[in-house]
Amino acid sequence: MLKNYRMKIALAQLNYIIGDFDYNTAKIIETIQSAKKQGADLVVFAELSVCGYSPRDFLEFSEFIDLCEVSAQKIAAACSGIACIIGLPTKNPKVKGKDLYNSAYFIEDTKVKAIVNKALLPNYDVFDEYRYFEPAVNFSCVEFMGHRIALTICEDMWNINDNPMYVISPMDELVIENPDLMINIAASPFSYNHDEERVQILGDNCRKYRLPLFYVNQVGAQTEIIFDGGSLVFDQDGSLLDELPYFSESLKIYSFEYGKIIGHKPIVHDTQNNIQQIHDALILGIKDYFAKSGFSKAILGLSGGIDSALVCALAAEALGPENVMAVLMPSEYSSDHSIQDALDLVNNLGCKHEIIPIKEAAAAFGNMMNPVFKDLPFNVAEENIQARSRAVILMAMSNKFGYILLNTSNKSECAVGYGTLYGDMAGAIAVLGDVYKTQVYKLSHYINREKEIIPENSIVKPPSAELRPGQKDSDSLPEYDILDGVLYEYIEHKKSSAELIAMGFDVALVKRILRMVNIAEFKRNQAPPILRVSPKAFGIGRRMPIVGKYLG
Amino acid sequence: MLKNYRMKIALAQLNYIIGDFDYNTAKIIETIQSAKKQGADLVVFAELSVCGYSPRDFLEFSEFIDLCEVSAQKIAAACSGIACIIGLPTKNPKVKGKDLYNSAYFIEDTKVKAIVNKALLPNYDVFDEYRYFEPAVNFSCVEFMGHRIALTICEDMWNINDNPMYVISPMDELVIENPDLMINIAASPFSYNHDEERVQILGDNCRKYRLPLFYVNQVGAQTEIIFDGGSLVFDQDGSLLDELPYFSESLKIYSFEYGKIIGHKPIVHDTQNNIQQIHDALILGIKDYFAKSGFSKAILGLSGGIDSALVCALAAEALGPENVMAVLMPSEYSSDHSIQDALDLVNNLGCKHEIIPIKEAAAAFGNMMNPVFKDLPFNVAEENIQARSRAVILMAMSNKFGYILLNTSNKSECAVGYGTLYGDMAGAIAVLGDVYKTQVYKLSHYINREKEIIPENSIVKPPSAELRPGQKDSDSLPEYDILDGVLYEYIEHKKSSAELIAMGFDVALVKRILRMVNIAEFKRNQAPPILRVSPKAFGIGRRMPIVGKYLG
C-alpha cells in the first residue's frame, strides 16, 4: 500500500470566459505552473473549465467541441511532472445516445490518464444539461500517487438524502472500489441560500461515505448566472476544514496523507447575511458583464428614487465612479426633491452626470399624436411616452459614446409589470431584476452602512414613478411588504392562488397579484437578462407560456 | 378472436389554449358528443390535449396538474358508451424520478381504463420535456373492442431508422404483444420541411412493424410555436391512406376491421411548396396570437419597404383589414415613393392608416441632446433616434387604443443585428423573424399571385432603412442572396467558419457575418417572440450565451 505518499492538491477557483479558449487555456496553464512552483502534485479546476459554464448551444457546433479537445491537449502538454483535473465537453463514442458527455479529464505528466463523465444532469431552473449530454452509466475511480480518487462532477454528489429527482447515485458505485478521497468539480451558481445548502449536502456525502472531499467551484458571472466560488474542503467526518473566498479567484494547496487532510482543524462555514451576499454577487455580476463584453462605461437614468440610486451606487463600486454616467431626465411631474436627491447621490459617489429634461420631447409627441388622440384624456399612453422618451435619450448617449445601459427595474416591478416596455424596462443587464423592492431597501441600508451614500430622502419617501401629478406606486400596487410576501410564495415556492389564500392572504389581493404577474409575461419576455441572486429568478430559469390562461 | 369487430375511430385534430381548462375540456367533450352521434367508438385527441402544448413551467405548479386530472375526470364522465384517448401530464407515483409523466389516458365508458406514459422525451430545439417528465420504461398495449392497440405519444415513434439520440424504442417493446394497430398522439410543430419528414418516419414505422397507424396532431399556434395539424392514417404497408387538413381543425371517422382500415386507397402526401406553407403558418400564427390573447386589433409601422408591406398584408388576411392600423411615419430621409408605396398598399388591402411624420420628435431630441452631443457628427445615434421615435408613436397608439404592435423584422436582419433595439425591433410578436429576406420576396410574390396587393415598387426597389440620405441596406450588409446563404448554413446547419469557408464562401465575408450574428445576441435576447416556421428559429429553440466569445 502506497497510501502514505503525501499528495499536495491545489484547488483552482477561477473565472472563465465562455468560449474564449485562448483566455481560459492560458489561465489554466499559468495556474498549473504557479501551483507546480508551490509544490503541488495535482491541480483541480472546475466543471467545464476549458470552455466556461454554460456554453449553451455553442455545444451544438462540432468545431466548438474540437476546440475544447485542442485546449485540453495544450493543457496536457503543460503538465510535465504534474497532474491536473479539467472539465470539458467530450464526444460520446457510442452509437446510441446524445452526442456529448460532460466530462473531466485526469491529466498526469502530459497524458490524459482517465476520463470521467457526469451522470446526474441538471435540467431544471437555469439548467439544460439533457439538451446536450448523455448521462454516464459506468463509474470507476482514478489512481494517483498511490491514492484512489472518487472523482465526480457537480450534481453527481447531489443525490444524497434520497433526492427523489434521480434514480442512481454515482458515489454509491464508486465507493465499491474503496476510494481514499473524493474530488468534485462543480459549476454551482450563486443564490442567497445556496452556500449553506452546499456545505450541508457535501458534508452529508462525507459522512455517508466516510471520505474526505475536495470541492472546486467556478467563480465569476456569465451574463445572468453568477458563480460565487466558495470551494470547500471536508474531512471524512463531514467537518468543514476550509473554504476558499466567495466572489473572487483563489488558488490554495492542501496536503493529503494517510487518508487525511493535514494541518486543518474544523471551521464553521462563514454564513454571511443574505443582503451582503447579494451585494457582492451584484457587484461581480456588473463587473464581469462589462469586462467580458469588452465594455467599461455604464449609463443609467437617475430618477431620485431608490432603485436607480442603488444601481448607481453598485455600478460605481463595480466599475469605478469615473465610468458611470447618471442622467437626470426630469419631466413636468418630477418633484424638486427628486432632482436634488439624484444630485446628492451623484456627489456622494463622484460619478458623472448630465441633466436632460424631457419636456421638449414630451411636447413634440403630444403635438404629433394630437391629430390622432384628439381630446382623449391623459392616460397610460402619455405616461409611457415620458418613460420611452427617457429610453431614447439614454440609448442615444449609449450609441454616441459607447455607454452600456443599466436597467434599474426591481423584481417586484418585473413581477407585476409595473414598468414601461422600451422605456424604463430597457437596458443591457437588469441589476435588480431578481431583488424584491423590500430587499432594495435593505441593500440601500447596506450601501449606507458606514456613511450616507444613497440620500436618506431617496430611501424614506413613498415610491413614485412620477409620470403624472401626485402619482404613487401604492395607487396601482399593494404595499410592497404585502406584495413581496405574495410574490415570494408564488414565484419562489410556486404556490397556487388556493394555497396562498389558505396561507391567510386576502382573496381579492391574491387574484389581483397573480393576474398582474401573468399578464406581464409578454413584457418580461423582452426584458434584459437579470442578474440571478435567488433560487428562482425571472429569465432563463423561469419559462412560462406568453399566451396562456393559467394564473396559479 | 374478436378482431373482426368493426371499430370506428374518430381523429380529433383540435386547437387548444394552454392552461384554459374550461375551454379545452368543453371542446373535447363537444367533440366526443359529435363523434358519438356519427357512430364513433373511439375518439383520439392529441398529446397534452387537456392542457395544450407546451404548458412549460405551469407544470411546476401542483395545482396545474390537479386541474388536468379534474378535466380528465370531466371528460371521462362524458364518455358514456364511447371511448377516447386524451393527453395530459400525470403525477409519477414512484418514489424516485421526476414528478410527472407525459401521459395518455385511454377512457372507456366513463372509466380510465389504461394509462400510457411517454418514453422518448424531446429535449432539443424548442423542447424541454426532460425538465418536467420522467421517461416511461414499461410498455403494454391497450385492449379495446377485441383489438389490441399499441398506443404511443409523439416522439415515441421517432426512434426508427436507428435515430442515434435514443437508446430504446417503445414500439419494439409493444410489438411483442402482437398489437393489431398503432395509435400515436402528437404535438408536432410546423416547420416548412416537417410534414414530409413525418410522413416518412411514420410510414417507416408501419413498414417495420407491419401495422396500420392512426396519428393525431395538434393544430394551432401557441405564441411562437405553430402546430400544423396534418394528422395521418397509414395502412400496414406504410402507404398513406388519408391526411387531415393543415392549419385547421378537423374531425374525421375511420372504420377498422380485420386488421385493416376500410374504404381508403393509398394517396400521395399533398406536398405543398414551402412558401405556401409558410404563408399559411404565419396567418395561423397571427390569428391565434390575437385570439388567444383576447385582442383583435393590430398596429404596425408601414415604411413603404417590403417587410412591413408583407406583414401588413398577412395581418389583413389573418385579422381582417378593418382590424389593421398601418402608421406611416416619414422622416426627412424618407423618399416620396416610400409614402406612395405605403399608401398604395393600404388602398389595396383596405386597412386603416394614419400619417404621423417624426420630424418634430427628431428635432426635439436633436435640441435636447445638443448640449451633450455638441458638434459630434451624425451617426447611428441619430439614426436610432428616428427608429425609436417611431416605436414611441406606435406604442402610444397601442396604449391609447388597445392595438397590438406587430414587429416587421426579418430573419436576416435579426441574425446580423440590422435593426434598432426599442425601435423597429419592438412588437408583441415578430411575424417575419424566422423568414429570411430572400424568402420575404418569395412570400410577397405569393401574396401577389392573383393580383398586385404589395406594390411592385416595394418589391423591386433596393432595400433601405431610410435613416440617412441615400442609405441602402447594401451599404452595411452583403447582398441578401449571399448573406442568406451563409446564415442558412450557419444557423440551420451549425457550420463553423472553417466549414463555411471550405464550402466556398469568402473568408472575410464569413468572418464578418459570423461576428455580426454573435454580437447581436444581446439584441435578439430582447426581441419579441418569433413565429417559428423553420427547423431552427431564433428564440426559445436557439439558446446562446449573451456574453461569450465563440463565433463559430
From TrEMBL, chains A, B:
<dbReference type="InterPro" id="IPR003010">
    <property type="entry name" value="C-N_Hydrolase"/>
</dbReference>
<comment type="function">
    <text>Catalyzes the ATP-dependent amidation of deamido-NAD to form NAD. Uses L-glutamine as a nitrogen source.</text>
</comment>
<dbReference type="GO" id="GO:0008795">
    <property type="term" value="F:NAD+ synthase activity"/>
</dbReference>
<feature type="binding site">
    <location>
        <begin position="301"/>
        <end position="308"/>
    </location>
    <ligand>
        <name>ATP</name>
    </ligand>
</feature>
<feature type="binding site">
    <location>
        <position position="523"/>
    </location>
    <ligand>
        <name>deamido-NAD(+)</name>
    </ligand>
</feature>
<dbReference type="GO" id="GO:0005524">
    <property type="term" value="F:ATP binding"/>
</dbReference>
<keyword id="KW-0436">Ligase</keyword>
<feature type="active site" description="For glutaminase activity">
    <location>
        <position position="118"/>
    </location>
</feature>
<feature type="binding site">
    <location>
        <position position="124"/>
    </location>
    <ligand>
        <name>L-glutamine</name>
    </ligand>
</feature>
<dbReference type="GO" id="GO:0009435">
    <property type="term" value="P:NAD+ biosynthetic process"/>
</dbReference>
<feature type="active site" description="Proton acceptor; for glutaminase activity">
    <location>
        <position position="47"/>
    </location>
</feature>
<keyword id="KW-0067">ATP-binding</keyword>
<dbReference type="Pfam" id="PF02540">
    <property type="entry name" value="NAD_synthase"/>
</dbReference>
<dbReference type="InterPro" id="IPR014445">
    <property type="entry name" value="Gln-dep_NAD_synthase"/>
</dbReference>
<comment type="similarity">
    <text>Belongs to the NAD synthetase family.</text>
</comment>
<feature type="binding site">
    <location>
        <position position="408"/>
    </location>
    <ligand>
        <name>ATP</name>
    </ligand>
</feature>
<feature type="binding site">
    <location>
        <position position="188"/>
    </location>
    <ligand>
        <name>L-glutamine</name>
    </ligand>
</feature>
<feature type="binding site">
    <location>
        <position position="413"/>
    </location>
    <ligand>
        <name>deamido-NAD(+)</name>
    </ligand>
</feature>
<feature type="active site" description="Nucleophile; for glutaminase activity">
    <location>
        <position position="154"/>
    </location>
</feature>
<dbReference type="InterPro" id="IPR036526">
    <property type="entry name" value="C-N_Hydrolase_sf"/>
</dbReference>
<comment type="pathway">
    <text>Cofactor biosynthesis; NAD(+) biosynthesis; NAD(+) from deamido-NAD(+) (L-Gln route): step 1/1.</text>
</comment>
<dbReference type="GO" id="GO:0005737">
    <property type="term" value="C:cytoplasm"/>
</dbReference>
<feature type="binding site">
    <location>
        <position position="384"/>
    </location>
    <ligand>
        <name>deamido-NAD(+)</name>
    </ligand>
</feature>
<protein>
    <recommendedName>
        <fullName>Glutamine-dependent NAD(+) synthetase</fullName>
        <ecNumber>6.3.5.1</ecNumber>
    </recommendedName>
</protein>
<feature type="domain" description="CN hydrolase">
    <location>
        <begin position="7"/>
        <end position="260"/>
    </location>
</feature>
<dbReference type="InterPro" id="IPR003694">
    <property type="entry name" value="NAD_synthase"/>
</dbReference>
<dbReference type="GO" id="GO:0004359">
    <property type="term" value="F:glutaminase activity"/>
</dbReference>
<dbReference type="GO" id="GO:0003952">
    <property type="term" value="F:NAD+ synthase (glutamine-hydrolyzing) activity"/>
</dbReference>
<dbReference type="Pfam" id="PF00795">
    <property type="entry name" value="CN_hydrolase"/>
</dbReference>
<keyword id="KW-0547">Nucleotide-binding</keyword>
<comment type="similarity">
    <text>In the C-terminal section; belongs to the NAD synthetase family.</text>
</comment>
<dbReference type="InterPro" id="IPR014729">
    <property type="entry name" value="Rossmann-like_a/b/a_fold"/>
</dbReference>
<dbReference type="InterPro" id="IPR022310">
    <property type="entry name" value="NAD/GMP_synthase"/>
</dbReference>
<keyword id="KW-0520">NAD</keyword>
